[in-house]
Amino acid sequence: MSSTAERVQTEIERAIQRSIKGLDYFGSPAPAVGPTPKDVILERGTLHLYHYVPVADEIYRVPNLIAMA
Is residue 1's pLDDT more than 70? Predict the structure, then answer.
């Protein structure tokens, strides 16, 4: 019986901790969206090809190409 009571107590404590973290999440400020500086390389209709300017000290030289379906 004590093992069941211990498991219930553990689950209740975990649920309380998750609730506290959830409240911290909702109380936190919204993240900054889109602050990366960029230059337009090509513009044709609704197509925009950007070159993003690196803002970090460490730069990876692997290019990324994102294409819409």
Answer: no
